[in-house]
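One thing: mind reviewing this one?
=====
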Amino acid sequence: MKLNRRLLAIAIFLASTPPAWATNSPMELKSVLNDLMTWMPGIYSSAPQVFFENAAGPPPDGVHENFYRVFAKIDAPQLGENVIYTQIHIDGKDGPIYSGQQVLFLVDIDKGRQAVRIQGRRIKDPENFVDAHLHPEMWKTIAPDPKYGGNCEFLWRRHGAQIVGKLSENDKNNSTCTMTSKVSDTQYTWDAEWILNDHELWVYDNGYLKDGTLFSGRADKTHLRMSKTRDYECFASYQPAKGDAVVNNGFHMHDGGDHYTWTVKGVKEPVHIELMRSMWPSESGRNYKELLRIEMFQGDLDAPPAKRKVIGNGWASADSDRTSFGTGVWGARCKLAEAGAPPKKN
């Protein structure tokens, strides 16, 4: 009898105990909001993940997409105090913008659900707001498209040294949201989790039809790993057998797998220079670490690293502010651009 009463008391206690996220005090939520608005803005690339998967072997669904993504805080008080504009380029910074992925993030604290909330909204007339992060004059008129979004929200909470956002319709402690399209009247279920720290963003984002068919995302449910890039000022040189050295000075690249193509007088093929900060594949696991790498090669720019005609390369630790190489004929070096200096477009 005493045991039954004890079990009943435990059951009542558990039923009345709020979920674990209730420990997020107002002060903690302000800290999460501050970290999100500090960490998320930047330029990200998934090319380091693509490089590693090509070298070490892909996950079950194959190599991930090469995305270049911009997140920028904009001053748009008509939308709220904390607004982030984002756009995705396919296959690097010079690739086309991913259709439908010019999005506004409206960020605030949800006191009732004790989380930081992001409402993601597609932009109305997106063709008029390309590269909006570079044009403050656009911010006063930028607006969500009423035909899309507003159904599901991301709720962000702290998990150790990172913050995690999960999609939610009513905070059932999962990462799914079921909604009906305002355009097609089709029912979709989205399952999404984003993980953010001060130098990387991992994105898992799957979409399913009513019958469970996966129409967007990956069946292997692996995250797209996007690294925040840094801007480097670079220099390259060529010393022909006869004559003076040819020098290319002052071009810029980011360290997220950026490329620069140089046409050198007297050399038949252009040379490509790549700057990459990524995990280095190591079958033993002993050398599995992040490195900053510069490589010069000729031939097909899109050829996998193993099939490149490499002229020269060099490595440095991932946190180094420079990397270089020199062969006596060819050379290149990159140095971290001055802190706060805006990246330059080549």
About this structure: The CA atoms of residues 48 and 278 lie 5 Å apart. The chain has three helices and 20 strands. The chain has a mean pLDDT of 89. The first helix runs from residue 2 to 16.
